[in-house]
Amino acid sequence: KLDYAEKIANLFGAGLEEKTVHAVDEVNLAVYPGEVVGLVGESGCGKSTLGRVMAGIMPASGGEVRWKGRPLTSLHGEDKRAMRLSAQMIFQDPMSTLNPRKRVIDLIGEAPKVHGIVKGREMRDYVAALAERVGLDPSYLDRFPHQFSGGQRQRIGIARALAVKPKLLVCDESVAALDVSIQAQILNLFMDLKREFGLTYLFISHDLGVVKHICDRVVVMYLGRVVESATPDELFDNPKHPYTQALIRELPSVTDRRRVFTPIKGEIPSPLHPPPGCHFHPRCPMAFDRCRVERPVLKETAAGHVSACHLNDLATHQATHATAEPV
Ligand code: SF4
Ligand code: MG
Question: Which keywords does UniProt give here (predicted)?
Fold first, then answer.
């Protein structure tokens, strides 16, 4: 029986050991200052793990994470502390990370106090300003998390992250639990904060529709591997990987609400025993012999657009893909 750490190691072993770092390098899963990068895939594809590794809260079991060009493992003391503060995570359910017995003022003020970012007597003003900035009524600072709605709690989580003056926010399904109208509000808030504080985002979501409108670049993952990466427009207009094509087909259509929902057939395989060759082959409608034995590598098919699929090597790709049946 594997423990969690081992599972994660294996999950990444599935790609990292071989070449995920390489693959990530090829698509630049470098996140550049000021960028909004979307990381998309079904649950269990490794995107949360990758996000945690990039935020420096989980060590990589293979490969290397660099912060401003320096490996995280080489950072110590003040450098390490600065890095950890610079990258903050915002999770799906703030209740799981907010101590229910603490008041909002303390929840938001805790880290800046510990790290000496704000002096004790300036704390209330500091927290009130932050609360106001994220759309929370500053007169509620003495309330407890359970006294707020889901959307408000997410605002508390955002204020808490901002309180330590981060550069990178890693948002892991940060709007997934919210109603659609609240989702839009929180996404708008993220984009406003980006402009105001010069933030960079790694935006993790299972929902391509959510990342479409806010990201500069979308990276699609499947079972621990990056399978495609492009700008949102390019990805939606010209998806190359059959997995990406299936994800796009899954999106509810705004123009045609009667359209049939077409889920990707089959279960996502266990990351502990990924299929050989292309990990997607058991679910891929286009799979051919080579897919079952040879791992496809990322190739650039248009400027800034890479995908890992053997179809890239076939001249008939366009024709084949145009006539493909939905998955
Ligand atoms: Fe499908 Fe083969 Fe491409 Fe994998 S490599 S996505 S199985 S066509
Ligand atoms: Mg997850």
Answer: ATP-binding, Nucleotide-binding, Transport
